[in-house]
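Field reference: sequence -> structure
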Amino acid sequence: MVSPITLDALRVLDAIDRKNSFAGAADELFRVPSAISYTVSKLEDDLAVALFDRSKRKAVLTPIGKMLLDQGRQILKATDELTHIVKQSASSWETELRICIDSILLFDPIYQLIAEFQRAYPWINIRVSEEVFGGTWDAINANRCDLIIGGEAIPSSSNFNIEIIGEIDFVFAVAKEHPLVSQSLIAAAQPLSAEVIKQYPSIVVADSSRQLPTRSAGLLDGQPRITVPTMDKKITAHKLGLGVGYLPIHRIQAELNTKQLIALEVEQPEDRYYNLCLAWRKDNKGKALDWFVKKLQLIKAQLL
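Structure field:
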């Protein structure tokens, strides 16, 4: 059975409702009023329902007519979106861009880019995921994302384009109420020895890799640990005094300035400098990907 509810009929109902008259709808749709009246009358006859209350001076929908229009507008919106998707796909615009961000980065500048992109290309979906350590590379290797932001820089690859973002520095930090702070007030207590540090749990972020080998950092032999899922959770755990460890300076500068977190010297500081990068597949020629890569190259300093 072919439905009498066509896209054209839905557009006519929509125009009548917005313009409050058949004549107004005719002007908007570049038709004569009689054509608008015929479309509505035929739809009413085919459905055997009254869609407009003709006792009113203005074009007023009946409850059934309003229900039809409300549902019909969703169909019209979906049709418009499908039209854009088809046109974008034909012109190398992706229907969805999958962005994987390392937990160590500041997300706000990336969200601002997404907002800018949505204003220009509202029909393209953006999917954001968060990974830790090798999880970013794991995601792009497994084709779970199109672009990684904040992956640890690796030697050049034949499969990926790599753009260096910059270097991240870390500091050993604890909550201002942590026992290590009171101990270290005595000058002789700093730098802290490994034996002193091992008395307290290390807060570590779990590597989110699914297929690539996982790794961890900042652990001493025999030291208890508290494992959390993201860098945000690690910073929170530090501020609550749950444990100790290294934190990226760019993520805790405000807490260091307000003394919520205290940076302490240690006898054997770890080499915790990381070069981070953007990476995407060389065979991916999508225009949305290209847009983000070019924009990120301009603001990469804001991510650190």
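Note: The longest strand covers residues 160-168.
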